[in-house]
Amino acid sequence: MEKVRTRTLEADFIGKSPADMRQHERQFCTGRVARPRRCVTLTFPEARHLLVLRNNNYYFFDVLDEHGNKISNEALAANVQGILNDESKGAVEERVGVLTTEDRDKWGYARVALEDNPVNGDTLRKIDSAIFALCLDDSAPTSLQDLSRQLLHSDANNRWFDKSFQLIIFSNGHVGFNFEHSWGDGHTWLRYMTDSYKESIKFPVVKAPSEVVTPKKLSWKLGHETLNAIEEARENFEKLIASTDLEVLDYPKFGKSHFKKWRISPDGVLQMAYQLAYTKIHGKPGATYESANTKKFLSGRTETIRSVTPESVAMVNAFLQGMDKEKREAELRRAVGKHVEVVERAMNGLGCDRHLFALRKIAKKEGLAEPALFRDTAYERAGNIVLSTSNLSSPIFRLFGFGAVSAEGYGIGYNILDKEIRACVTSFRDQGTSSKRLVDEISTTLDLFDKTLSS
User: Could you tell me the pTM of the whole model?
Assistant: First the structure.
């Protein structure tokens, strides 16, 4: 955080090109603020306090002094212990954080009503401006699947999803992370997590404080309109949770080391595994998105990597038709090679999706008739992403994931480790999809690729 504030954070590199690092300026002291018909992202660079959520209570304390220096580890521990010692619980009907899960227009109107009371206005400003949110949970998930659910959505009792990020610590010591995606991307957070991890292992564990600090608690004054909005948001969120089908792929048989031996792109092989697995289940290829990092450009975010190509379709057919091993390997390598080309083009600003999206928005803004391209059936099908995928591979964390972006689609966040592969797969129930079946098919496909690529 100090390096971000002083603009001394070393640049990332994409190949030989330095990355635009401005996303990091919004990592801290930032909140997404809902308004009717729009959202705004606000950053408060002078903020010095941390937001802590526990038992539906909202606490805050300064972690920087008036000169911008960090308080001592002992002082930090004393504040946190004071919060842990507070056994009071916020009223269930007053869990305001659930509003951040609601439809953005509904939340925007509810927030305007909430801000009418100056007490609430002050509380919201403290939340919006906090350096980040620390969530101290009583739950103790142990399996990767339970951890994923708690980090992706939980029950929102102890969350504020509009914060730039929430550091979530469970009672059994497991730690996770949830970030707000509208302004920033996974690779930005990967840098933060990597640096934080490297720093954390240098220092000893802080001893329990001999004295604790009485926590400062934020207050709400909630009228009937807000209480009704909270209840409606709670009901809607519970339905969303119930409809979310989440499964974890934990594939222990091989990882990056095998791909090096096979001299083939790890990411390309995983993308082809998704293509074959999806086609086995649904009988046809599906429009696929993979995130490409375009931060080598000014204000770069992402571009779409289109994983479905004539080569990927030929590869799928080779496996489905039971062609001999040599033919299957040849088609797999050809499809992966093509995928690498598509990735390079997307990362170098030669993708088409963002360009076309911008043209469509400009036409609408200028009051122009919508070009025929955007009404074409092929364009509509290509825009209905049924496989939304993102590769965020690092040994410092076990798993990451996100929700599916279409009702009949899947979300796949994956981590290719040295000796294993993990993915969080999400979809929606009763839509003709099954996260469990897709996970099983991906695992079976990886077994098949192993036999195909091994001599």
Answer: 0.95
